[in-house]
Amino acid sequence: MNVYRYEQNPLVTPSDVKPHRPDFEVIGAFNAGIAQYKDEVIMLLRVAERPVSEDPEIVKAPVFNVEKNELEILELQLSDERYDFEDPRVIRKAGSEQFVYLTSLSYLRIARSKDGREFTIDPEPFIYPSNDLETFGIEDPRITKIDDTYYIYYSAVSPAGVGESLVSTKDFKNVEHHGMIFAPENKDVLIFPEKVNGKYYALHRPVPKSTGAPEIWIAESPDILHWGNHKYLLGLRDGMWDDGRIGGGAVPIKTEKGWLELYHGATKDNRYCMGAVLLDLNEPSKVIARSETPILEPEADYEVNGFFGNVVFSCGALVEGDTVKMYYGVSDTSMACAELSLSEILASLTEV
Ligand code: MAN
Questions:
Q1: Which residue, by CA, sits nearest to atom 4 of ligand 1?
Q2: What CATH number should be reported for the domain holding residue 257?
Q3: Which Gene3D superfamilies did the record assign (predicted)?
């Protein structure tokens, strides 16, 4: 696979972003949703900020308080044995898989560009946690344009779980909130850019508990707000690059051969790569072909090293002719972009 990484990579790093308050530091500007808006490429960044801690023995956890409409900052002692601080992203209850706090708060902020390489970051957050399902933050947005409306959907994180919420905008200024469309635990929703046989379609990624795994499902909707007729779509593959967890990445791309979905797959030890899957044009719940090997894997220094290294994670791509401009988060830290050939991706897939 020919992959052309931009010379300017990483395109946006945490140091390019001014914290939204003086006592905070930006630790991530990554996993951005992508849209073309008028003559601008919009990169809707997930910005992760944490309260500056002067004392290395204290871990601070930001939590949005809905009643007070402000952030609360909890202080935990690193020596407190009730907690497990091993994963830099989360604070777990000792001996448990579940987290009780996140180490940073994420919100969404716009970066704009005329050429898709040099970005200017808006001075203020665009979408900030605003309700009791978002008290730990909002993350990993995707943007689907349908007619003149941009649907933006993201992971809403709170003690109640991680689900997927939907908002919409026509101008990247005024935002209408539509509530949660996929209840916890669910992430990596991708709404198709047009109806197929009179229905809207979305990929989603529930995390089943009693049996099952973090795998990709597909659902239908008459109106983008209500989703049903859920079907299991794509699973993990033992011993391969996507044997730990998988989820949709960029908004599905319409091609003559079918809907092309660029998805992420992680190994059991959390190495995140990008691959592709082709779905039937008229019946997207039918899988036609899939990547045996990744189309992009962490190789460049900025993809290997960072806050949570060995991660390439795309939330959006732009297509121009045969060129796929895949924007992607690197190591839960920064944003990068790589160009790939659409026909080459399609030719690389293996029929299932
Ligand atoms: C995982 C990671 C984190 C994220 C939480 C909650 O632990 O993806 O970055 O904050 O889930 O979504």
A1: 89
A2: 2.115.10.20
A3: Glycosyl hydrolase domain, family 43 (2.115.10.20)
